[in-house]
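Question (not urgent): is this output format expected?
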Amino acid sequence: MQDYRSLPKLRDSISHLYVEHARVDKEAQSIALQDKDGIVSVPVSALTLLMLGPGTTITHQAVKVLADSGCLTVWCGEGGIRYYAHGLGETRKGYKLERQARLWADEEKHMAVVRAMYFKRLGLRNLKPYNLEQLRGMEGARVRDSYAQMSRETGVPWKGRQYDRSAWNRGDEVNRALSTANSCLYGLCHAAIISGGYSPGLGFIHSGKQLSFVYDIADLYKMEVTVPVAFNTVKEGPEHLERTIRKNCRDQFFRTKLLSRILPDIDELFNLGERADELPLDDWPEDEDPARPAPYWGSDRDSGGEPW
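Got this back:
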């Protein structure tokens, strides 16, 4: 049985890899990508996210080795723009999801998490007098100022955020660059959220979508990571904009050590004075044996017995 504690830590992993028009096969305990130019081996034990774009086929054994290695697989549209489905992350623990759900369902604690998120973005300590709509307005002003500032610094014209998925090529370069960069960021945050045992759907600021919490967390990093990448890449004028954006995002994720920050940031957002009664991550039995039976009521720590 796979010992999940033996896998590399998420923070030590490669961020993401996007593949299109290729075949993905198992190769030993890794995978191999094959296209018209040849075959490339990929060490999936150190990969966090594999994004499968159009024209991709993948074998059953390749999916299995990806899951065993704790690499999240996402099926997406061209350039990673549209999200279709995802595979299973490496964690089997449920207590972090339960913690997230308690905070989400409690109105007072829900707003405390919202304020903690806006504090990380705005840097203002006393946010209690403001309701959600006021906080969104403050954040909107900050985002508009950031776009305008990047436009002045790079000389890239900025006419506002405009994005139409049905008319992708009619968008200007900087808007297409931002969408491409953000899709890479969403995938990375999604992989971290799943790996940490949280739900991507239980959002605090965003709501109503299966990726609401992904958008919440990604928004913490956009002004630092994807916005500079998008504007600076457009300034360089590459021939293949979307492909260059994905490569530059990967480099920026590495420079900012983003993978090492996402889960600690989520834990910090959720650390609102609740009783710390969880087991340490490395002592959670469900990760040692994903098929291990669990009691219907409570955990083994509470009941000390087997399920009915």
